[in-house]
Amino acid sequence: MSDVTTTDLYEVTMAMSYLREDMRAPATFSLFVRDLPPGRGFLVAAGLEPALDFLSRYRVEPGDVEAFAAALHRPPEDLELLLGLGFDGEVRAIPEGHVVFAGEPLLEATAPLPQAQLVETYLLNQLCHQTAVASKAARCVLAAAGRPVVDFSLRRTHGPWAGIQAARLGALVGFSATSNVAAAGALGIPASGTMAHSYVEAFSSEEEAFRAFARAHPGPVTFLVDTYDTDEGVRTAARVLTEIRRGPGCAIRLDSGDLGELARRARATLDAAGLPEVRIVASGGLDEYAVAELVRSRAPIDVYAVGTKVGVAADAPYLDAAYKLVEYDGRPVMKLSSAKVTAPGRKQVFRRPGQPDVIGLWDEDPPGGTQPLLRTVMSEGRRTAPPDRWEYARARLAHDIAALPASARTIDDPDPVHPVRSRALEELTSRVRGEIESRFFPERLGASRSGGHAGRKAPPPP
Amino acid sequence: MSDVTTTDLYEVTMAMSYLREDMRAPATFSLFVRDLPPGRGFLVAAGLEPALDFLSRYRVEPGDVEAFAAALHRPPEDLELLLGLGFDGEVRAIPEGHVVFAGEPLLEATAPLPQAQLVETYLLNQLCHQTAVASKAARCVLAAAGRPVVDFSLRRTHGPWAGIQAARLGALVGFSATSNVAAAGALGIPASGTMAHSYVEAFSSEEEAFRAFARAHPGPVTFLVDTYDTDEGVRTAARVLTEIRRGPGCAIRLDSGDLGELARRARATLDAAGLPEVRIVASGGLDEYAVAELVRSRAPIDVYAVGTKVGVAADAPYLDAAYKLVEYDGRPVMKLSSAKVTAPGRKQVFRRPGQPDVIGLWDEDPPGGTQPLLRTVMSEGRRTAPPDRWEYARARLAHDIAALPASARTIDDPDPVHPVRSRALEELTSRVRGEIESRFFPERLGASRSGGHAGRKAPPPP
């Protein structure tokens, strides 16, 4: 199964029609999140790098045409106009790691209409999933308030691929390590992990398990102390750690129970045993809320490992994102029905210190003192720069988070920043709405506030 | 990145220690879900087939050893005992499609301890994710009460791999089609999809868009009618459908607004136009709750397309699953700490008509009239039968759901079935608990109800 056929069928049926009608004029699609989920004061843009990889290699091969034809119960000859299609358009996007808000385009693609349409599903898939997970993970880093956070999510992510991405996104938002060996190697970040409860159970005693582990691993070790009785496990760990003298870097891990209280007692036991350098790692269903509560209660926990709830962004595992046509053949377009009105035209986001972002038009003059967030990252189907490294994304995020209002950064009931629209975008939206209404609903115009546009001619057909 | 390195590092550190200590005796691990999430009256076992594929091809190659060594900052020579390890054990499991409940082993693996440990992360990853998604999807089929359900989830799943699996799991639970071209081809199920709002917007009018679509697609067509004004869109669709006379199989799709009310008006318009055979498809953020409400209100919707919330199992995107050591070298073991007590020994699940399942021991005599759910699916590292087809899993699920109590099947506030434990399992649990307590906490025995075991000798070290 190629990436090209990993698509919704309707991208193919639409592209076939566009090609048949010779509708190959440039189209611009805008990918944005309509609303932030509850519990999010900001989102972290992510998924662009894999999306650009996909666009760079996109090409409809004969096997893809055959798969499309089979899905449509038609002979491959009927789809031959699709053969060889690549993506040779332009992409403007917000680089990974920037903080973003509702309505801000994460990515805009401009390409001949069939091409820009065919890539929709995959782009949404990448950007929705990764932005959702990165946004959750970033909140864990905030909650830990400077203490290291480690990714333990692989066993719970939606497949192994999502596990690799969870580790990448953890690194991007500031995690210090991952349990995922493949991801650690690929990203150049530390791998973390020592033993499970089953390890302790496989030996005749907890002490024998710890000793055996130390025999196999000459460096610093971490002992899991809650297989039987946690306080006893801490004492056993202290005894073995005292004997083996592995120096700094050793730790104990607590994985169940009242982590704050157990950590306080463990700290006392370790300190009394002359082991103040032995760290305490906590894990077990932690998310940003649990971490924040432990930090608030001054639990002596040195490292937080988060897995299950973070790797799947458990409280917001999807985003309400859309990939909307905003311009075709030079004509701005928009959707009017129900509450899902889209804004027309190619856009830019202008970030202003201490004030909400301005969503404006790509070609308008930036308001003074603002930073435009979208960059041209692909031109004529080629990346304009080498793949972005996660280290740069991490630096962007640190910068953006420092500039966030405290109300957006807070863990409990955050209040997201609401971007405003530039005057130029407001005017374009109003004009296009008037044009569509005069074209489709001339009878409404007497009562419409867009009445001034009543005499405006509908735009020429494409 | 190989599947072998897509693992938590601790599997590797534990396996290294086991090999160093020559602890290669058979170990049995049990994979089960501790508790059902809220909103689930049952789970659908899924993920076994990809898990068996993984086990069948598992082998630690030199590149994997190098990746492990890099993660541990050790020379590859230190890990050479791992080289060439495969999985040549036995797997007993509940086939995909069976309904399962809390505490029931989905899978038990018996293999030399290092092997059985190394595969933990991947097995949990597969079974947790897929059982979570299948369970959500099965509820959508129940809610639709016989109407076709279609998978539209690819744009929201956690990566493209998860999208392929979502389509597979949809087929398994009874969906009639998927929008995912690659999955449709691989599974031999219908692909579904026609047009997006952007398609309508790219033309000078809705009517022109519908006509162009019909020109490109000679068979039955589905027109999306809510780009501008839905009632007007339905009238336009009716006009074009009347002209093109494509016969049965044509449809309109509603994707926003009050779907029930819009469907009623659309049905009236279509019927008045002499198009009673044109079906109404509903989509747009649907899950089992929304589908059930529409069905209850007798909305004239013929097909439900579900995506976002189902593909990520939005209200329960993970399961509280564990992979626990239950036997090592013939000695049953268990974990005692906190609330996460595990039951020792190799297990079987006995299903009884009209009564809760019995969780018992693998080798105990089945109670009369019961069906044992776990089968030996792998022996000496090889599948005991060809890969199971999703069609068989679908049949199993249909059978099991028909036998469920209504309280477990209901959409709102379902009440899961609570399995009971067999007498043999209760006795083994009590005995092992007593042995562990006498070994670790002799001082507690005076006050313990397991006092009868006080004189029992701790089992010999492995």
Automatic annotation (TrEMBL), chains A, B:
> Any idea of its EC number?
6.3.4.21
Q: Where is the Nicotinate phosphoribosyltransferase N-terminal domain?
A: 6-126
Catalysis performed (reactions) = 5-phospho-alpha-D-ribose 1-diphosphate + nicotinate + ATP + H2O = nicotinate beta-D-ribonucleotide + ADP + phosphate + diphosphate
This protein's pathway reads: Cofactor biosynthesis; NAD(+) biosynthesis; nicotinate D-ribonucleotide from nicotinate: step 1/1
Q: Which residues form the Nicotinate/nicotinamide phosphoribosyltransferase domain?
A: 150-297
Q: Which InterPro entries match?
A: Aldolase_TIM, N/Namide_PRibTrfase, NAPRTase_N, Nic_PRibTrfase-Fam, Nic_PRibTrfase_pncB, Nicotinate_pribotase-like_C
Family of this protein: Belongs to the NAPRTase family.
Q: What is this protein called?
A: Nicotinate phosphoribosyltransferase
Species, as recorded = Streptomyces chiangmaiensis
